[in-house]
Fold Helix-turn-helix domain-containing protein.
Amino acid sequence: MADSSSLQPTILTTPTALGPIVRARRKAQLLRIDDTAALIGVSVDLMSRLENGHGSVRLDKALAVLDGLGLMLMVLPKEHLWVHEAATAKAALPSSVTSDPNFEARQT
């Protein structure tokens, strides 16, 4: 069962921020990277590049990985209420949490 942090939206601010989220979600489901790739229909290399933020990954492949792990990408105007709420929730956390380089990964 997912913990409450998995229900929190995450604002991605860098191209490499998606990888730790994908890895954390995969590990939370107790899946090995090769099993995940096979189940989703992508290569282990693609999964590794996505999780590690190395190289580029086509958007359709990234969306397939997100869907396969039960995640979704949303594109919203910056002024949308949900963006404000996600930023407010992150700002309310102690700085020791948000300054942790693994903070984004724990948001899923």
